[in-house]
Amino acid sequence: MKWATLISFVILISAHFGKSDRNRVCENFSDIKEEGFKAFILVALCQNLPQSGFEEVVLLALEITAAAGACCGENPSPDCFKNEIVLSQSVICASNEIANKNHVQDCCAKAGDERHQCFLEHKRSIPKKKEVQKMYSGKEKCETFKNNRLTYAGLFIYSFSRMHVMMHPFNILVFAGKIGALAEECCAQEENLDTCFYEKGRPVRNYIASVTAQSQSVCAISKKYGERVIKAKKVAQSSQKLPQATADEIAEISQNITSSIFTCCSGDSFKCTKKMKQLIEDSCARDDIISRTKHLAQCCKLSILEKGYCIENMEPDEKPADLSEKVESYIKDADVCDKFAAGKDLFIGGFLYEYSRRHPELSSQMLLRIAKGYEDELTKCCATENPPECYGKADEKLHAAVQDNLSHFQKMCAIVNTEGLAAYVKLMVIRYTSIMPTASFEGIRTITYRMGEIMQECCAKDQSKLMPCAEEKLSDLLDETCAENDPATINKNVEACCNDFYSHRRLCFLDMKPDTESAPPEFSAESFPITEAVCTMSDQDSLTASVKLLYEVVRLKPTITMEQIKTLTDGYNALKAKCCAVESNQQCFETERAAFINTSKDLLTA
Question: Where do the Albumin domain residues begin and end (predicted)?
Fold first, then answer.
């Protein structure tokens, strides 16, 4: 399957959106062909029909695809002159069993835009599914892939779409394309299939996790903090990427991006696609801006399939040659307080623009903290007898905050680069289990493994790109975590951090103390499943076993010291080394495990 074709289908739909005098369904069906049409419809069905199984949604997708094909016949139905969603809803509503099973019978009783809005509300109310993904061997994956490549892609689409009902189909189809390309590469070889899927699948898994977290983060931020925070974040990012643009131009660009975010987060994929397409066209139609840019100009020369991704991920342009090193007018002018009093938001917005365009090496969260810090300084200084003397020192304080933040990431990279990824993951498991001892092992493992993958990726970049990479991705991960869970059910500290200012969330988690209020579980020998199986584990399984042990230890005693952890891990490693070295090791493990458990109990319950 040509996956670029699927992406073009999403764009083609928006190209015809709103033209009621054309048979748009036939046009799109002809442009994308049957396979592409079917894939897009499959995503939409999986997101809207949570009670329908894979086989049922596939049959429904085939029925809708057949109806779309009929739109190209001699007597097209009225739905053919609307869009694919209207056509799909008509087919769904034609089956009382499917409509009733998925609780959309009330929507089917409506017509036109009322029906569409009803389906949207239904989609928004679908609870997020946290399905435990079954682990298949490389051999099993390749058997499915070789037997039917479309089924292989379809199973991924079904599973992922049900867990992410609000995600735009564009992203899911891109993910499915990458999953299919990975299978095609690995299944072409005869040996080491598991290794291939694990090693070559790492960048695919990281990409899917990163885009998913980013997508969910921006929607969670827009819902929790509103337009002001989203727009400020986009002002910072746009100013970094387009330092030649004026403040008014950046404000307009940021407002347009913000508007598209709220549309896309509503779950209406058609309006989202239309808005995204318009945003790309508007960006590339601004000759006055493009003539002053490098990377935007390059992106706008690409095909419509490539423009959006290019613009979203483009590098910052070079700063204008005449741009001063510091934001002089905001720290030296005598009338700063007058301007601040005349319009606080406008003045701080101007500061954010000027500071951001000078500092592409900072994360948007850092820039928002700097703007908030500057605002706090002015609030304090403008109430003093000599405001200029007071706010003239603001730049030094802001620079110190930047250095503290950068130093933290450099220290984390030192661990990743010198001690290895596993050491960093274990450190994070200890850290996050101590502050969230009631969280599940799967939850702790998911967040800490993802943190490890993020830091491994970002630490390989130049120092100038370290903070934007690491803090952006880690913040997305925390935003996703706060949105997917009820923080109050974990503990009050986590709840407080999830409710903190957006730009301060990560620092809040960083400063959080171990949870000493939640009652620890009873000590149990079952928490230490150490058997002869550890001798033959793969590196990946061995890391999981070590991480599970750390999790069990720390949740029993969240205030455990690193020295105490070293005592236990040294004991565990010595046990493994001793028993794995003997031929008949079952008895050894039984004896040594009992001794290790007794030692652990004394240390953890003291």
Answer: 14-205, 206-400, 401-598
Cβ proximity of 26 and 67 under 8 Å? no
Phi, psi of 213 (to 5 degrees): -65, -40
Is the sign of the CA dihedral 352, 353, 359, 362 positive or negative? positive
Are 423 and 543 in contact by the 8 Å Cβ rule? The answer is no
**Among 184, 201, 191, 199, which Cα is nearest to 142's?**
184
Confidence bin at 514 (pLDDT 50/70/90): very high
What is the rounded CA–CA span in Å between residue 267 and residue 599? Answer: 54
On whether the CB atoms of residues 72 and 29 are closer than 8 A, the answer is yes
Alpha-carbon distance 595 to 605, whole Å? 16
* Nearest in space to 487 (alpha carbons), one of 455, 523, 469, 512: 512
Nearest-angstrom CA–CA distance, 43 and 9: 13
Q: Is 26:80 a contact under the CB 8 Å cutoff?
A: yes
To the nearest 10 degrees (0 to 180), the angle between helices 421-435 and 441-459 is: 140
Sign of the dihedral through C-alpha 365, 370, 376, 378: negative
Alpha helices in 54-168 (DSSP H): 54-70, 84-93, 96-101, 105-108, 112-125, 138-147, 149-163
263 token code pair:
């549309």
Q: Report pLDDT digits (tens) over 134-182.
A: 778 899 999 999 999 888 989 999 999 999 998 888 889 889 989 999 9
**DSSP per residue, 543-567:** HHHHHHHHHHHHHH-TT--HHHHHH
Closest CA to 370 of 334, 401, 335: 401
573, burial (CB in 10 Å: exposed 0-12, middle 13-18, buried 19+):
exposed
The contacts of residue 338 (CB under 8 Å, 6+ apart) are: none
Side-chain-side CA neighbours of residue 549 (13 Å): 23
Q: Is the pLDDT of residue 342 over 90?
A: yes
pTM confidence score: 0.87
Burial 35-48 (b: 16+ CB within 10 A, else e): ebbbbbbbbbbbbb
Burial letters 134-170, b for 16+ CB under 10 A, else e = eeeebeebbeebeeeeeebbbbbbbbbbbbbbbbbbb
Distance CA 566, CA 233 (A): 42
Q: Considering the chain, what is the average pLDDT of its residues?
A: 89
Quickly state the pLDDT bin for 305 (edges 50, 70, 90): low
Please answer whether residues 520 and 504 qualify as being in contact, where contact means their C-beta atoms are separated by less than 8 angstroms: no
CB atoms within 10 A of CB 498: 22
Backbone angles phi, psi at 300, to 5 degrees: -70, -10
What six digits make up the tokens of 214?
């980013």
For the chain, what percent of residues have pLDDT higher than 90? 65
103: left (phi over 0), alpha (psi -120 to 50) or beta: left
At 485, which amino acid appears?
Answer: N
